[in-house]
Amino acid sequence: MSYKSTLVRFAIKQTPKKMVLWLANKKTKDIAELTDFSFNLEERKLYAQMVLAGEEEAVDLRIEDFTLVAHEESFRISIHQVQSNRPWLDTLLMKFLLDREWKVPEKHADLIHELLASEDPEQEESEEE
User: Fold this and answer.
1) What's the pTM?
2) How many CB atoms lie within 10 A of CB 127?
3) Distance between CA atoms of 57 and 70, rounded to whole angstroms?
4) Contact of 110 with 7, CB cutoff 8 Å
5) Cα 43 to Cα 94: distance, rounded to the nearest angstrom
6) Which of 19, 57, 93, 125 is most buried (CB neighbours < 10 A)?
7) 13: exposed, middle or buried (C-beta count within 10 Å: 0-12, 13-18, 19+)?
8) Listing from the earlier edge strand, what are the strands of the sheet with 74-84?
9) What is the mean pLDDT of the chain?
10) What's the start-to-end Cα distance of the chain, in Å?
């Protein structure tokens, strides 16, 4: 793993949870309020709990087993397992999100690449070629 990847991972792990919640809620204003989350880089798992606008009960969302795929000059992310506590949301996510490649916006590509960089030096070398 590169020094840059190590530094990025360290910074993410050390960022206070309240700060991440505040930033996320700033972006999702009038759509949802993120009330809890956990992100495990090593296991590539994300848990988020949010209250959607107009709702009273929180929605739990678990995203597991996702990969970053190099695609020409950009990156795409593919989610292989997702689950929520709402049947209608499970159906929606499975039909429109699961096993599709989603382009990572260029302004976030380097950060996401460093976050999800492989710990296997041989794989990193083959990606650089």
Assistant:
1) 0.74
2) 12
3) 38
4) no
5) 21
6) 93
7) exposed
8) 32-40, 45-52, 59-71, 74-84, 101-103
9) 84
10) 16
What is the block-wise mean pLDDT of the chain (129 residues), using blocks of 10 residues? 71 84 93 94 90 96 88 85 95 93 84 65 43
Q: Residue-wise over 85-109: b if at least 16 C-beta within 10 A, else e?
A: eeeebeeebeeeeeeeeeebeeeeb
Joined together, the tokens standing for residue 121 give 């030096």
Structure tokens at 27: 């972006």
Question: What pLDDT is stored for residue 1 in this prediction?
Answer: 59
Residues 6+ apart with CB under 8 A from 55: none
What one-character-per-residue DSSP string does 73-111 give? TEEEEEEEEEEES-HHHHHHHHHHTBT-EEEPPHHHHHH
Half-sphere exposure of 25 (CA within 13 A, CB side): 16
Of residues 91, 121, 113, the one with CA closest to residue 5: 113
